[in-house]
Design brief:
The complex is a heterodimer of chains A (about 600) and B (about 375). Chain A has about 600 residues and is mostly beta strands. In chain A, strands 23-22-25-26-31-30-27-21-24 form a 9-stranded mixed beta sheet, with no helix packed on it. In chain B, about 5% of the residues lie in helices and about 40% in strands. In chain B, the strands form 7 sheets. Chain B has a 5-stranded mixed beta sheet, with no helix packed on it. Chain B has a 4-stranded antiparallel beta sheet with strand order 4-3-6-7, with no helix packed on it. The radius of gyration of chain B is 43 Å and the shape is rod-shaped. Chain B starts with a helix and ends with a strand. Classes of the chains: A mainly beta (about 600), B mainly beta (about 375). Chains A and B meet through strand 22, strand 32, strand 38, helix 2 and strand 47 of A and strand 16, strand 17, strand 18, strand 20 and strand 22 of B.
């Protein structure tokens, strides 16, 4: 009787606590010493579910008498905020009680008692009573066990209601299944490889691991079907995707060399292009990466049969990177060579210039310039043997380093428009920051003779709560996005607000950033604000109002680890986001010695917002 | 009355030129205070005096009247007593002892009046000096502990009391450093002071056994009492922080495969254990959140590690769409200790590094990713 009632309650509450589902750790009375068997236990069910204030909560005792007979005596505890809450005896024998929860919050409920004088194991839980008008948000909870713990990375979906803290039902991680298998290459030889495993229909995201030189790998997984991508370290063996693999029976992954794809790459002049990297991606699975020989020929290995994209990366060449995406309709096949030809009209320009400091006259030795070109349509073509030429797009990303005099000489670049990242070198005054410059090298446009650094721009602001009280101790992190992403000298900065709630960051002028506000005290929910920084030398203001966080408490257990699982990384991730927002946690925690953790999740009811 | 009668009789006898008889003249008793309680005496002490040594030449029956007055003017002279300054009185014809309790630190003037049973009285008096007692002090460290990590601040709390009830109390302290400390590199300052309590904050520059010496005085004059007491404060070196969990797992010599079209890739330190600054931050008066130093090596940097300026957060995002298949990107993170101990003892090409050589306590972690 007990288990079904609990399951119903838990399902209705969608994992946000509040049901009488109680694990062993919730026991409040272990019974008399030495009384190992038989034993009795008291638990209870809760209704209604979920609980929205004001509500009259009915608690019904669920008795496992363990074979004991006699009068059943029940003792209840109901508390809210550390204060006893009055309850009413519905049944006359306290087997069912009601209490009133007029306001949202957490209500602690416990039952204890005895049968015929024999003390029984009790139980307790914390009920989450929510605001009836509260908004709610779903999050994906990613749980990564500490290294060595016998459980795989897992995920849970939680719904967090605004306006009140909440306690999750205990999260019992499954031990899962420890997969130990071997990756074998052509001829059955064990090979080292990278493996990416994705549970079919699962929530937990990718699991990554590596097979060693003996081809062996070991990883904890949920017993289920997985899609497994194997990327051999051996560059002559094509990566391979295994679909819907039952990992409980997995002992070996055999990776054949793949289908040989041949072809040639020719310059605009029709001459062979040597030392170019050629890579395919077929149905999302990468090929090996080939390098063209002196005759422009290449051979790579891939799993053919699907929509194919092609990338050609010239090395030490003024030619752009060629890209043919899958929308072009190419289906690569073994025995069907690919003729890759740069467009004959593709022109390039020799660029010589000096990199100066912001004063325009002081050269910057060893400065680096990263040229990010606009897409060049019709930059080339890919023609499968016997097929039609498919137009490929050109893309340029070239980094050049200035000499000791700050000069770059004879840099050959395709003629197109560029965004140039002008990066200072070590030793350049700290006030000289990476600078974004637009340079148009399209036909007919003048080549600049110099590019200058700039001093950056300032973003200042004040962080307050929703009552406009300033917040000290908020870490403000500026993460560059767009063309600045991945660039090390972007002044990607972080600082903590002062006692007046103020911060000031010097960033790249005209750069795009995400400003992330994290309360170190975890009292307020994370806030991310995309900003575009003013032009170099300028200043802008970006205030922020941070809403109180909902404290979501939980406890992680793993079978075999009595008392809770310590050191489990718990991340709350946006459930419906994409891009960076999908992988950037809104709250992080690590479980303590008893497996407990607290996440400070933005209150769905009161949204943080920029001012 | 008897004395007067005798005198009249004598005068009458002399005036008539003869005396048939002569009555004896009553001799005055001799009052003498004896002290039965040895000194010194303090506020609150009970002092017992005795009239036992008083005598009467006529061996008359004596009775004693005691008055103890505690009063001293600003100049130290005994002032005229009023009722409020009388700390004890006693009239007794049986007991010779008188006990009183010292009320404050001024001298007690004890007056004994002895009367014989024929009405003659004499007095004796005595000053009982009251000694000042030194104040007492209790010293504690906050937070309570036996050793503290260099880089934290420890409060020394001195709670003074005075057995005489003297107030206010005055506090002073000095920090005695271990060898190697530079005075201008240590912060030792009074945080607060009341008569009941004074608090100092000590944030030293070197580890070792520090001793804080506290002096508490119960006045400002030369005769003020004082107590000097020491409390040791042991500072130990800041232990290096340990990166205990990363996401993804950092595997030496292994390269993750990142798809160019797979969206941004997050590299994060998810757990750092440290005595001061852990991640996530632990609760505690001197606990903070760990900070990090990030580096990236990519084709843009010619494969060399370049510091990501200013980013001290626990994660770093790589946008693979900026790279081409075959590019190798390395992301490195080093956890910053509150007290920097210099560069890590590892060459740039060593991905995982520890100050102590302990592989389970890394301060540098490097991920490698191959773009596909």
């Amino acid at each position: 009787m007990r288990a079904p009632r609990k399951l119903i309650a838990c399902a209705a509450l969608a994992l946000v606590g509040g049901c009488g589902a109680l694990g062993p750790s919730d026991n409040v009375d272990a019974g008399p010493p030495g009384d190992a068997s038989p034993s009795c236990s008291f638990s209870f069910s809760v209704s209604p579910s979920p609980l929205f204030a004001p509500v009259t909560v009915v608690l019904t005792a669920v008795v496992n008498d363990g074979g004991f007979t006699g009068f059943q005596n029940f003792s209840w505890t109901v508390m809210n905020g550390g204060t006893d809450v009055a309850y009413t005896d519905n049944s006359g024998d306290l087997s069912e009680i009601t209490f009133s929860a007029p306001t949202p919050g957490q209500y602690y409920v416990a039952i204890a008692g005895d049968i015929g004088g024999r003390s029984c194991t009790g139980s307790s839980t914390t009920l989450n009573v929510m605001d009836p008008g509260a908004g709610s948000t779903q999050y994906r909870l990613r749980l990564v066990p500490a290294p060595g713990q016998p459980a795989p990375t897992q995920a849970r979906i939680i719904r967090v209601y605004g306006g009140a803290n909440a306690t999750l039902d205990p999260i019992a991680l499954d031990n899962g299944y420890q997969v130990g298998a071997t990756v074998k290459g052509p001829g059955g030889t064990p090979i080292a490889a990278y493996l990416r495993l994705k549970q079919v229909g699962g929530l937990g995201g990718d699991v990554e691991t590596f097979a060693d030189a003996a081809g062996q790998f070991s990883v904890w997984l949920t017993p289920a079907l997985y899609d497994i991508l194997v990327v051999p370290v051996d560059e002559s063996v094509a990566p391979m995707k295994f679909s819907s693999v039952d990992v409980t029976t997995l002992t070996e992954l055999s990776v054949a060399q793949g289908d040989a794809i041949t072809g040639t790459v020719l310059e605009p002049s029709g001459q062979p292009l040597a030392n170019a990297r050629v890579a395919l991606r077929i149905d999302g699975v990468p090929s090996t990466i080939a390098t063209t020989d002196g005759g422009g020929a290449f051979t790579l290995y891939a799993r053919t049969g699907g929509a194919t994209s092609v990338t050609v990366v010239p090395e030490q060449s003024s030619l752009p990177q060629l890209e043919l995406d899958t929308s072009a309709g190419l289906v690569a096949a073994s025995g069907t060579p690919l003729a890759i030809q740069y467009a004959g009209g593709l022109s390039s320009r020799s660029v010589s210039l000096v990199v100066n400091q912001s004063d325009g006259t002081t050269p910057v030795p060893a400065a680096s310039l990263t040229w990010i070109g606009n897409a060049i349509t019709m930059a080339g073509s890919v023609t499968p043997s016997g097929g039609s030429a498919l137009a490929a797009t050109g893309r340029v990303r070239i980094t050049a380093t200035a000499d000791g005099a700050g000069a770059i000489t004879g840099l050959s670049l395709p003629e197109t428009g560029y965004t140039v990242l002008v990066q200072p070198s070590p030793g350049t005054p700290a006030s000289e920051l990476l600078t974004l410059r637009s340079v148009d090298l399209s036909p007919g446009m003048t080549t600049p003779t110099s590019l200058a650094l700039s001093t950056g721009a300032t973003i200042t602001g004040t962080v307050t709560d929703t009552d406009n009280v300033v917040l000290a101790g908020v870490r403000v992190t500026a993460t560059p996005t767009g063309v600045l992403a991945n660039s090390p000298s972007t002044a990607a900065s972080s600082m903590v607000t002062d006692a007046q709630g103020n911060y000031s960051l010097t960033l790249v002028g005209n750069g795009d950033y995400d400003l992330r506000f994290d309360s170190l005290a975890a009292n307020h929910g994370q806030l991310v604000v995309p900003v575009m920084v003013p032009a170099p030398g300028g200043s802008g203001q970006q205030d922020a109002r941070m809403a109180p966080a909902v404290k979501v408490s939980g406890k992680v257990t793993i079978p075999g680890l009595p008392g809770g699982a310590p050191g489990v990384s718990v991340s709350a991730l946006c459930f419906s986001c994409s891009g960076a927002d999908a992988v950037r946690p809104v709250a992080d925690a690590v479980s303590g010695p008893d497996g407990s953790f607290v996440l400070a999740i933005p209150d769905p009811e009161v949204q943080s917002q920029p001012n | 009355m008897r004395c007067w009668g005798a005198t009249v009789a004598v005068l009458a006898a002399l005036s008539v030129g003869g005396c048939l008889y002569a009555d004896t003249i009553n001799g005055e008793p001799q009052a003498r205070i004896g002290k039965s309680t040895p000194g010194p005496h303090y506020v609150g002490s009970e002092v017992t005096m005795t009239a036992f040594e008083s005598t009467d030449p006529d061996h008359d029956v004596l009775s004693a009247t005691w008055v103890a007055v505690q009063c001293e003017d600003a100049a130290g002279n005994s002032c005229p007593p009023d009722q409020s300054q009388i700390i004890g009185t006693k009239s007794d014809s049986v007991s010779t002892d008188f006990t009183f309790q010292v009320r404050d630190k001024t001298p007690v003037l004890v007056t004994l009046t002895v009367r014989d049973d024929r009405g003659a009285t004499t007095q004796d008096w005595m000053y009982v000096e009251v000694q000042n007692r030194d104040p007492e002090v209790d010293l504690q460290r906050q937070p309570v502990g036996t050793e503290y990590t260099l880089g934290t601040s420890v409060r020394v709390v001195a709670r003074g009391t005075d057995p005489d009830g003297d107030a206010p109390l005055y506090y002073a302290a000095q920090a005695k450093p271990p060898r190697g400390s530079l005075p201008d590199q240590t912060r030792f300052e009074k945080f607060s002071e009341t008569s009941d309590e004074a608090i100092w904050e000590l944030e030293p520059d070197v580890s070792g056994l520090w001793v804080v010496e506290v002096t508490v005085r119960d006045g400002t004059g030369a005769d003020a009492g004082e107590v000097v007491k020491e409390i040791p404060v042991l500072f130990v070196d800041d232990a290096p922080p340990c990166v205990t969990a990363t996401d993804p797992l950092a595997v030496s010599g292994a390269s993750y495969v990142v798809d160019t079209a797979g969206g941004v890739r997050r590299f994060a330190v998810t757990s750092v254990s440290d005595d001061l600054d852990s991640y996530p931050a632990a609760s505690g008066p001197y606990q903070g959140e760990a900070e990090f130093r990030w580096f990236i090596a990519s084709p843009d940097t010619s494969g060399q590690f370049v510091a990501v300026s200013g980013n001290t957060a626990n994660d770093y995002f790589v946008d693979p769409s900026a790279y081409a298949p075959g590019d190798v990107v390395k992301v490195r993170v080093e956890v910053i200790d509150r007290i920097e101990r210099g560069p890590l003892p590892c060459a740039d090409d060593i991905g995982m590094c520890s100050y102590t050589g302990d592989a389970s306590c890394l301060q540098r972690v490097t991920w490698e990713a191959e773009i596909r």
